[in-house]
Design goal:
Helix content is 20%, strand content 26%. It is built from 6 helices and 17 strands. The strands form 3 sheets. It has an 8-stranded mixed β-sheet with strand order 1-2-3-4-5-6-7-8. The chain has a 5-stranded mixed β-sheet with strand order 9-10-11-12-14, with no helix packed on it. The longest helix is centred in the N-terminal third of the chain and has 19 residues. About 5% of the residues have low confidence.
Amino acid sequence: MKRLFIVSLIIVFAISLAAQQPEWCKKLPRPAYAKLERVPNADGWFQVYRIRPGVFAIYEPWQLEEVISYLILGSNRALLFDTGMGISNIQAVVAGLTRLPVSVVNSHTHNDHVGDNWRFNDIYGMDTDFTRTNARGSKDDAQAELAPGQLCRSLPEGFDAKAYSTKPFHITHSLHDGDKIDLGGRRLKVIATPGHTPDAIALLDEKNGLLFTGDSFYLGPIYLYRPETDLDAYVASMQELAALTPHLQLLLPSHNVPVAEPAYLPKVVSAIQQVRRGQVKAIITDGKHEYVFGDFSFLMR
């Protein structure tokens, strides 16, 4: 009887804990990850997956943004495409994956993609005022990531939530549209994709048919409601990316799931054009307009 009572208490506790979790937590783990190769990693805040030879997705599943950063290896050096939330130490994770010198390139400079930039000495940044402003750091956006409903699990041991902020970082190289970064045996082309932010970019690994899309495209609600968002620029940027579709093997987005089919790009162009022509009815969510197209949507003002 005593054992049965204890088991009953455990079940009640588990049910209570599940009820307290935000609704979005209940979809984790996302099914797509079961098909990917998991790489051992000592830091429980991150999960690491090998997507292609020399390409690792570094995933932060426990915060609402579900940010994904990418470590891309060449023969001479490595590139880290984004540094995540800055809640735990992504530099230590990277050090466990490669001994090559590592440079940082950001898909854009929203706080959830530059959180650990300050830990690195070699950082490329787009030559925009938006980039330079965000490189000074900020606290408000970072604190908002810890608000009720934003987390699925406890924060890492020793993390100071009250002091959490995006720390300033130093840009050592300016980037421009069309620039190429040679890692040795792997060249990455910078494609400016303004729209989500003025400094948004994608990275094209033409040889391997890989396109790292940043926040211009991912499966889920694509944020197009912030003051810095330019919808005209977004449409033009997505048209440019969609034109690459015949030459691509895989999209690697920066949120939720690290793999998507290139065929999504022309669908996104068609979808955003329908929205702008007023042909799609919005769902009002928390004061924002969401336009849903299957497994992606646009979240707009």
